[in-house]
Amino acid sequence: MTYPQLHMIIDGEKIPVGHRRTHTVVNPATGAALGALPLADAADLDRALQTAQRGFRLWRDAPAQQRAAVLSGAARLMLERQEDIARIATLEEGKTLAETRIEVMMNVGLFNFYAGECHRLYGRQLVRPAGMQSAVTYEPVGPVAAFAPWNFPIGNPGRKLGAPIAAGCSVILKPAEEAPASALAVLQCLLDAGLPKEVGQAVFGVPDEVSRHLLASPIVRKLSFTGSTAVGKHLLKLAADDCKRTTMELGGHGAVLVFDDVDVDQVLDTMVASKFRNAGQVCISPTRFIVQEGVFSRFRDGFAERARSLRIGNGLEQGVQMGPMANARRPDAMNRLIGAAAAAGAQLHCGGKRIGNQGFFYAPSVLSEIPIETAIMNEEPFGPVALINPYRREEDMIAEANRLPYGLSAYSWTNDAKRQKRLAREVEAGMFCINTTMLGGPDAPFGGVKWSGHGHEDGPEGVMACMVLKAVHQG
């Protein structure tokens, strides 16, 4: 298919390259250039801010029926355009076409759910003596600056746009420069479904320039960010200068507790597919496998066997199970982390190297008996590597799961009902799975604790995060 011409969207206008600086978008499967992306200058960002201010004044008063109609209409358009949007995402991010098709459907479900939430933004009436009235109401927070990463080029922009629009806010979206056309396609569905042109905008640029410019403006009243903990902390400091509201979905290092009362093959069939989804470039990716000694050897060997059998290739090709990494930085990071772990005594069972001489392919990798002090055990690898270590006691397994300052997602596999309850209570994570990897859904809040951020997207909580509470008392 033909890759679309790239642009920004400000006040309904498609802003071309013109005199602006550009970023070259690259196909990670081939290393070839796909297109030139215009990068915003200060005048572009000022125009986006002024437009967002007008858009908020317009949209905050839009009735629930209008907001719901836009969201449900956009969901219908995304469904109609599923194949085109999915292929664009695979071209610029690399994941398989099967995954990008699912990602479109994630947005369809989320937008339809948010359309319903538009009618459920209730306050409450308080009990007061005769002659008095007190009510709690909710109002949209204001223009939102939303920063989305590249790893879910369709789903992340959908989350960043859907909740504020449902709440009655305007949005300035800065998607990832590595995967811009996917985000533009999502926003275009909203505009084509009737979203006023002032309400939703998309800009691109040098990330630090854009974030400093937007967050320095009093027009922006909320920051929504998905990305690394390091960048998130930096943005939080910028947002604090103006006391802006924040929703932060930051890094993770997903722990998986596997006990010796499970069917090992069943666990492996589920977890191997989950680990290597999107080449491991998933914030909730299962990474640290904390395995009880009784099943450790079988689990480790079975994991490596399945990893070696995965079909790696261009995500557009039928039958491919894992595509390339998204950019040139990621294979280099894998080499650094895996090489340092192996040098420290970890056992490398498969992978640990790039594949081929074009694109950014990296072999599915399995390490075991990794020293705790190695970098890969302490910083998010964000790639196709599973870390498998043996443990004897439940309390030691829980301690390892909670050792890091991250707490986004965690997983457990056990058939002991009492242990399931203990784990659900004691493991520190914003999202916890027992005998499954299905932790998401349009009605389920998505977010973490500790260094993995605060606030939630999806579910009713995602919309409420874009609103402020007001108590009104009348004598």
Fill in the CATH topology of the largest domain: Aldehyde Dehydrogenase, Chain A, domain 1
Characterize the biggest β-sheet. Answer: 7 strands, mixed
Identify the strand order in the major beta sheet: 14-15-16-13-12-18-19
**Average of the residue pLDDT scores:** 97
Task: Report the total helices.
Answer: 14
- Regions with pLDDT < 50 over 5+ consecutive residues? none
- How far is the first residue's CA from the last residue's CA? 65 Å
Helicity range: 25-40%
Proportion of β residues?
Answer: 15-25%
Measured on Cα atoms, how large is the radius of gyration?
Answer: 23 Å
Please sum up the structure shown:
This protein has 475 residues and is of the alpha/beta class. It is built from 14 helices and 22 strands. It has helices at 42-59, 64-80, 82-93, 97-117, 155-167, 180-192, 207-215, 229-240, 264-275, 293-309, 329-343, 394-401, 417-426, 459-464; strands spanning 8-10, 13-15, 22-26, 33-38, 124-126, 133-140, 144-147, 171-174, 200-202, 222-226, 245-249, 254-258, 286-292, 347-350, 365-368, 385-391, 406-407, 409-413, 431-434, 449-450, 453-454, 467-474.
